[in-house]
Write a structure and sequence with these properties.
With 459 residues, the chain is of the alpha/beta class. 27% of the residues lie in helices and 16% in strands. The chain has helices at 11-15, 30-33, 40-45, 66-72, 76-85, 106-115, 153-164, 181-188, 195-212, 227-230, 232-241, 308-320, 339-355; strands at residues 47-51, 120-126, 168-174, 216-220, 250-251, 283-288, 323-329, 376-381, 386-391, 399-402, 413-416, 425-427, 433-436, 451-456. Helix 4 packs across helix 5 (76-85). The N and C termini lie far apart (50 Å). Keywords: Glycoprotein, Glycosidase, Hydrolase, Signal. Residues 1-24 form the signal peptide.
């Protein structure tokens, strides 16, 4: 068992034993940790929902980085907002009691998340402001049990997700905290001391894993400190070897400065990362419905929100290139998922209800997008030998030209998901095929935002 220097593991962690039938053990080195196979469930699910919620949802202005922009960078819009709306001595900590969550209904959230068609959810257990959504023993009363809602937000959502849905439950955790005195002292010493990770960050990680058993652990915010400062490899060795989720947990790549897109279970590389081509390592596109913020913004305009057509495009491109899409929403301070977010989630669920066969459990095909017709992306199910051509623009000509599939005379079949009847096609030889799409009214289309052809017996 790997133990971080200066950190006392929770008693539960000390009592854990290796899983029955599991012989793999991982050393606290990146070479060893990176050899761990990614649990298969993560690649199969493809689509998840990110939830950014915290004290920043109270001012709900500009960005979830409100505290930093107001106090550290002193950006004029944030300073003016505070000067205009709050008394002179009002501090960020004064927002804590106003994070009330009186309308937070975890069961209702679970219903909305299930309706989205997502297969996993990741909640911010603690963002860079340091406020924990559970009653952490290490938070010094800066948490949702002792202040504000006086409820264990994490526990309530974990229970509802597991009782009402088949979604995998995950937690985001920020390694660093902007204004924590221990972290600032370590930073001033150029991280030659490790007071903050030993007393705060690492104990929190052991705490949430042991208490809530998340299947995704989404680390973020290294504070420009190296992974050795965070003892990331020591923690991950415990997570993979001895934790209660050692067989199923997946982790990302944000475990220290310079480690992103290099080490970890799957890569995120950057926020809103969508390379548009196949990558050799499993990756995730974490992105926002609100183009300007991860947290809820009262000052957002309708044009700031991505349309469902844009979200479907993000999902299709991401999955075609081997990634997962983690689509973010930001609840209000009182615990509501705003109507605009709920609408987008339910619209995505409608689309997946028709086209999910081309998303869930698929693999990248030999071609990610079509060479002749823009806006056509491919996925593949090897066991069934099915190819899916997802096209984002309905052809007004009545025919769709596909340059990548090579047909087999008398054997190739084409269906439009949600329509059912076999479609007629003609071969272009080595140049692909031309498919006759159904001549139906717009309201008769299987869905209004993107469509899928299922191709069988195609070389």
């Amino acid at each position: 068992m790997s133990q971080p220097a200066g950190c006392i593991l929770p008693l539960l962690a000390l009592l854990l034993v290796p899983p029955q039938g599991s012989s793999a053990r991982y050393d606290p080195t990146w070479e060893s940790l990176d050899s761990r196979p990614l649990p298969t469930w993560f690649d199969e699910v493809k689509f998840g929902i990110f939830i950014h919620w915290g004290v920043f949802s109270v001012p709900s202005f500009g960005s979830e980085w409100f505290w930093w922009y107001w106090q550290k960078e002193k950006r004029q819009p944030y300073v003016k907002f505070m000067d205009t709306n709050y008394p002179p001595r009002f501090s960020y900590e004064d927002f804590g009691p106003l994070f009330t969550a009186e309308f937070y209904d975890a069961n209702h959230w679970a219903d909305i998340l299930k309706a989205s068609g997502a297969k996993y959810v990741v909640l911010t257990s603690k963002h860079h402001e340091g406020f924990t959504l559970w009653g952490s023993k290490y938070s010094w009363n800066w948490n949702a049990v002792d202040l504000g809602p006086k409820r264990d937000i994490v526990a309530e959502l974990a229970m509802s997700i597991r009782n009402k849905t088949d979604l995998h439950f995950g937690l985001y955790h920020s390694l660093f905290e902007w204004f924590n005195p221990l972290f600032l002292k370590d930073a001033a010493s150029i991280f030659t001391t490790r007071n903050f990770p030993s007393a705060k960050s690492l104990p929190e990680l052991y705490e949430i894993v042991s208490k809530y058993q998340p299947e995704i652990l989404w680390s973020d915010g290294d504070g420009d400190a190296p992974d050795t400062y965070w003892n990331s490899t020591g923690f991950l060795a415990w997570l993979y070897n001895d934790s209660p989720v050692r067989d199923t947990v997946v982790t990302n790549d944000r475990w220290g400065a310079g480690r992103i897109c290099k080490h970890g279970g799957y890569y995120t590389c950057s926020d809103r990362y969508n390379p548009g081509h196949l990558l050799p390592h499993k990756w995730e596109n974490c992105m926002t419905i609100d183009k300007g913020s991860w947290g809820y913004r009262r000052n957002a305009q309708l044009s700031d929100y991505l349309k469902i057509e844009e979200l479907v495009t993000q999902l299709v491109k991401t999955v075609s290139c081997g990634g997962n899409l983690l689509m973010n929403i930001g609840p209000t301070h009182d615990g509501r998922i705003a109507a605009i977010f709920e609408e987008r989630l339910r619209q995505m669920g409608v689309w997946l209800g028709v086209n999910g066969e081309a998303i869930y459990g698929t693999k990248p095909w030999r071609a990610q997008n079509d060479t002749l017709t823009p806006g056509v992306w491919y996925t593949f199910k090897p066991k069934e030998d099915l190819i899916y051509a997802i096209f984002l623009h309905w052809p007004i000509s009545g025919t769709l030209v596909l340059g990548e599939p090579k047909t087999i005379a008398g054997k190739t079949e084409v269906k439009l998901l949600g329509h059912g009847d076999l479609l007629k096609w003609i071969s272009l030889g080595e140049k692909g095929m031309v498919v006759n799409v159904p001549q139906i009214a717009f309201h008769q289309l299987p869905c209004p935002w993107g469509w899928t052809l299922q191709l069988t017996n195609v070389n």
